[in-house]
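notes to self, project folder thing:

trying the whole complex as one job this time. last attempt i did each chain seperately and stitching them together was a nightmare. two parts in total, labels are on each line so i dont mix them up again. if this works i'll redo the older ones the same way
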Amino acid sequence: MSAGTAAGGGAGRSGPTLALVGATGAVGTIMLSLLAERPDPWGEIRLIASPRSAGKLLPLRGGQAEVQALRPEAFDGVDIAMFDVPDEVSAEWGPIAAARGATVVDNSGAFRMNPDVPLVVPEINAEAAAQRPLGIIANPNCTTMSMIVAVGALHRVFGLRGLFVASYQAASGAGQAGIDTLYAQLAALGANPAPLGQVAGDVRKAVGEDQFGPFPAPLALNVVPFAGSLKDGGWTSEELKVRNESRKILGLPGLLVSATCVRVPVVTTHSVAVHAHFSEPVTAEAAREVLSTAPGVAVLDDPGAGVFPTPSDVVGTDPTWVGRIRVSPDDPRELALFLCGDNLRKGAALNTLQIAEMLAAAG
Amino acid sequence: MSAGTAAGGGAGRSGPTLALVGATGAVGTIMLSLLAERPDPWGEIRLIASPRSAGKLLPLRGGQAEVQALRPEAFDGVDIAMFDVPDEVSAEWGPIAAARGATVVDNSGAFRMNPDVPLVVPEINAEAAAQRPLGIIANPNCTTMSMIVAVGALHRVFGLRGLFVASYQAASGAGQAGIDTLYAQLAALGANPAPLGQVAGDVRKAVGEDQFGPFPAPLALNVVPFAGSLKDGGWTSEELKVRNESRKILGLPGLLVSATCVRVPVVTTHSVAVHAHFSEPVTAEAAREVLSTAPGVAVLDDPGAGVFPTPSDVVGTDPTWVGRIRVSPDDPRELALFLCGDNLRKGAALNTLQIAEMLAAAG
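result (full assembly):
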């Protein structure tokens, strides 16, 4: 192995060995950026991906590291293995990594609702990570994540009773294919303004019936009220994730959560409109104070001065951004919020790495 | 007046005289299309606009009609005057037209919450139009309109108790300037894909700080959680309109309505995610049946087959389109819906014209 490819080797480093499974994917790419930005408590860092990516060189620790093929032996000596791969790959390989002695931090949906797998957001339920009988810890879905840090902070003070959520989800939530599809559709539409009395199906025709990529309808100049797969009662997998994961993270198994998940033509950063019902009366001032001091939350809330979060203004940053904080004039227990969070950072890579860092610090 | 400009003259026609004030605007343009498409019960049709548009020729009745300048005498002999102009113009000129004997149907926000002005959606509260002591009838805001026909039909059967609304509002809700701004921003951004780890503010910089048009932030590749102006308690005028107008149209002065209004990069057609709470238990089947037979509503609800409404698939059509109809697994009185409606047609011009047609039919 040349000096140039030994960047992850950890020679002379005493920390735990970290593996990143799915190093070449969209979330893996963001993870490599985060590893370069954040404190480095790690010994060896091992990059793992599918066999077809083996041998590829990726940036690490100021040099380059060679990607190893995913195989059981790749986990030998690994203390913490972060998985950023599709559900079925995690389902198969997570237990293999755990059996080889690694603590697995998994960003897929494979284990999130398994009662023997903690679902962890460090700012909210760090203590849950201690009980992990399978050696696996799960990372929440990016849409749940876009609100849960802020909502969890409010819950501690005001007691959450119910959540109505409408999402504005970015194309990159469907991976690089989602981004590529959005740009291809925008290019196909060109910059020609639509006629005022636009005709139904114009965008569909211009984009091309078979050019929807991972989405079930055109996304450019459109919004698509369907993400994930269809489940019981007409709900989507994405909407049920928001419900079930919120309940598990907050430790509120009976919480009423009703979500509508909608894809919007934004590249990266999910937004959510949240209407939350609390057991205690809330004022906007009190909510703002709780959120201002909550770890992982940043408040942007002076709408008269044009200050509120938008995806393009917060993308590439770590916090959950909160604005439009207001209380219903009809019920002082009803709070409305608008939140934005980078779905590839806190919504995926960052929270996974935070869990890994927490495990490393605990020894 | 030449034959070519006499198209609105009504010679030989016996119906009521109709005036369209704001004939050259975005909504006025759609109104001219509707007048061409729909049955024509009218005598003379008079096109009126600001003095700077006077003399302009617009398409009417297969020919062209000359725009008259807005002045008191323009309303002499007018039976019904439809106003599609800014609030302040309606506030000044609506009473003048009414004093000259016209029944005014106003699409601005000037009179909607006036207790002496009925706020009418023909499918929901046609009977309210009969009591109009000021000679003025108001047309609801386009965002309220995007859901109220469907929600009103459900209310009749299941008894509405509360509404949580998140909107996905099109650029044309801010008029032609909104459309022009969106396209100019898309052109400025070009079709160059953003880097995966996109940086906050990139869109803002590419679009140009002073190129936001009628919006308070970039709209291309973004969503903007602010529409209208700032009111008490951090709510926007648009959000309070959804609350106050829904209450008035449905005759439910105490209805809990909490709305978050968000602009999205769509040209025309507003969408809303609605979570409605009823006093009676609801099933998705029962809701679908009510909506399928409700006037002005069309159901598109087979999400497993990719069937749900999206803006680009319904723009240019008349109904309120409803899909994603589902009941909370936690509470059988909680119904979730996704709705789309053309904000320039039913959301503005069409409802105004329907009211005028109703008045014409009543004689």
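what i see at first glance: Chain B touches chain A through 83 residues (CB under 8 Å).
need to look closer tmrw
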